[in-house]
Automatic annotation (TrEMBL):
It comes from Tritonibacter scottomollicae (Epibacterium scottomollicae). It holds the Pfam family Usp. This is Universal stress protein. Residues 1-112 form the UspA domain. InterPro entries: UspA. Coiled coil: none annotated. It comes from the Bacteria.
Amino acid sequence: MRKFLVVLDDSRECLNAMRFAAMRAANTGGGVVILSVIPPDEFNHWIGVGEVMREEARERIHAHFEVFAKWMRDRQGVDPELVIREGEVVPEILAQIEADPEVGILVLGAASDRKGPGPIVTQLTRTAGSLPFPITIVPGDMSKEQLEAIT
């Protein structure tokens, strides 16, 4: 089964990437892997405090994931899987794709403000020609209806 990998973060454009990945998976008989990356700089504290913060971050990720997972199951009939990694985002995306040979497409949401499409999109598109997988970039300001029309 081909899986769509989508990154879960706090950005507004994440919502459209999630919607697109779920709709494409439903329409093609694929799956969805939702990757959330905990940056390492969040835990540069004493060992005990760092462990508590790490656990709190995981709890927030699980709660955020459940919102998207419920929508995907209820509306699209897709049961996504959650993967949580710790490290820098782009290297962890690449590591996840290498670790899961069923991942066929990376779906990213692009910001629509003047600051640019966002750091993940910027970093990955610089090297897109040498990556061993396709990237789908979904505009963050597309409406639900527009997304449905293209999936």
